[in-house]
Amino acid sequence: MEKAVPGPASPAFKLKMNYFMRRYLLTVIISLMIFPGCAGNPASDAALRSANQGLEDQFSPFRYMATPSDSGGSIAHVEWAGVPGQSISERAPQVRRDIFGAIMRNCDLQSSALAETRIVKHEVPTFYEVWLFNDPLSERTDKKSGLAVVMTQLPNGGGVDIQYYGDCHSKEAPAFHFSN
Questions:
Q1: Given pLDDT bands bounded at 50, 70 and 90, which one contains residue 1?
Q2: Are residues 93 and 77 part of one domain?
Q3: Mean pLDDT in residue range 7-18
Q4: Are 96 and 90 in contact (CB under 8 A)?
Q5: In the sheet that 144-153 helps form, which strands lie side by side, from edge to edge?
Q6: 30-65 pLDDT, tens per residue?
Q7: Based on the domain organization, do 77 and 109 belong to the same domain?
Q8: Domain extent for 54
Q9: Does the residue 124 lie in any domain?
Q10: Does 30 fall in a domain?
């Protein structure tokens, strides 16, 4: 069973992720101001873990990762959540058709544009994945857009509830510099 997903022009579809993403970006920014230091700094590491936990709780397709900076310190940048893997939907052709149908209707992304599926969490009854699409309308430099696809198995053979999180056409997220 698929939950109705408002179209991309609908404020509810866009604002749901925008609100949560902005809220957690603000949390990251405030955390970086309160806990300055390099990536090896336990306070900075805790700030990133906290921000990423908030992103996971909101089923965001993104996570922040820290990498060393050439100028010293480190940079926290956005990466896709999860690890590359096979979607659970490949075992259920009807569920897969429903997912692609909703993405096509709401985001105008074709199944042929699917570049990768990433597994965030597969724990019965909830399966949380990020589906990446090659998308010329993406504002990211890699021209990929990602949607979190959350499938929840309903009890007593009642079907699968499918929810989608993220913007149809992904935007470039800011990076944050941790100084030494």
A1: very low
A2: no
A3: 42
A4: yes
A5: 83-84, 114-123, 126-134, 144-153, 160-165
A6: 555 544 444 455 666 777 888 899 999 999 999 988
A7: no
A8: 11-81+173-178
A9: yes
A10: yes
